[in-house]
From TrEMBL:
Swiss-Prot/TrEMBL keywords: Methyltransferase, Transferase
Molecular function per GO: methyltransferase activity
TM helices/strands, residue ranges: none
Organism: Rhodococcus daqingensis
Domain 23S rRNA (guanine(745)-N(1))-methyltransferase N-terminal: from-to ranges: 10-44
Domain Methyltransferase as annotated: residue spans: 91-175
Pfam family of the protein (one): Methyltransf_25
InterPro entries assigned to the protein according to its UniProt record, in alphabetical order: Methyltransf_25, RlmA_N, rRNA_m1G-MeTrfase_A_prd, SAM-dependent_MTases_sf
Entries under SUPFAM superfamilies matching the protein: S-adenosyl-L-methionine-dependent methyltransferases (SSF53335)
Top-level taxonomic group: Bacteria
Any one GO BP annotation for this protein: methylation
UniProt name for this protein: RNA methyltransferase
Length: 281
């Protein structure tokens, strides 16, 4: 898949174009990047600011998403992308994790190529096999992304941080940015019971502030519904998110053992679509 999207990629050191030679990406300045046997390539320009999700967190995310509990969210993201029928579609997901959302969008856009970017090598291994048209790249979204300017028709940010200036740089002038953020009702039944990380009630205001000057919102929809989760589902849900870092495995198991066999848990998110603000001149 890297060969199919290489014209969209850029060298993280000099910004030049890349070519594929055997199992290596090369630029004209002589910088080279080996393609891992699992199919991903690391285009980090130096030490990443964050380490990303662990292999255990990524595996838990895959288990939960494979249970189809977040399918309505994936469907809504895909619809937001299909709403902009653009020529030569190319889709980027930042903080892509297992690639489930990227795969849903690629299924909805059969002519599109996809790139999943994550700083976690564990995520990159899942991304490389997430979809036949998805390429997997290790990169840090808080530095310049290893992508050419105005290369993408769609960019996805799903439960992920956003570097608005960089997303604006890589998105085409006619492109669409789709952002999924949780509301303060998301997983509310588990927050107090299990001590999960709370969603900041000012998250929507802060999202608007980070987008200002780079993007303007053109659409926003709310998606909220109840999920019936088993204890195993709840364990995977907790283990895949930020709460896994501060809630120990032993404490998590003890709390979850006290839950009923099936719990009703609310999924509640906002999906916002943005277009780039035209540049001056």
């Amino acid at each position: 898949m890297l060969a199919d999207v290489v014209e969209l990629l850029a060298c993280p050191h000099c910004g030049g174009g890349l070519d594929v030679a055997d199992r290596t990406l090369l630029c004209d300045q002589g910088h080279s990047f080996d393609i891992a046997r699992q199919g991903y390539v690391s285009l980090l320009s130096g030490a990443a600011k964050f380490t990303g999700d662990s292999a255990e967190m990524i595996a838990a995310r895959a288990r939960f998403l494979d249970g189809h509990h977040f399918d309505p969210l994936m469907d809504a993201v895909a619809r937001a992308c299909v709403a902009r029928d653009l020529d030569h579609p190319a889709v980027l997901e930042v903080g892509a994790g297992t690639g489930h959302y990227l795969a849903a969008v690629l299924d909805a856009l059969p002519a599109a190529q996809g790139i999943g970017v994550d700083v976690s090598k564990a995520a990159a291994r899942w991304l490389a096999r997430s979809h036949p048209r998805a390429a997997s790249v290790v990169a840090d979204i808080w530095t310049q992304l290893p992508l050419r300017a105005h290369a993408l028709s769609h960019v996805l940010s799903i439960f992920a941080p956003r570097n608005a200036a960089e997303l604006r740089r890589v998105l085409r002038p006619d492109g669409t940015l789709v952002v999924l953020t949780p509301t303060d009702r998301h997983l509310r039944e588990l927050v107090d019971l299990l001590g999960l990380v709370r969603v900041d009630e000012n998250k929507t205001v802060r999202l608007g502030a980070t987008m200002s000057g780079h993007f303007e919102r053109v659409d926003r929809i709310a998606v909220e519904y109840p999920m019936a989760l088993s204890r195993i589902d709840v364990d995977s849900l907790v283990a895949m998110g930020p709460s896994a870092r501060h809630l120990g495995e032993e404490a998590r198991a003890r709390h979850i053992a006290g839950l009923p066999e099936s719990s009703t848990v609310t999924a509640s998110v906002t999906i916002s679509s943005y277009r780039p603000v035209p540049t001056a001149g």
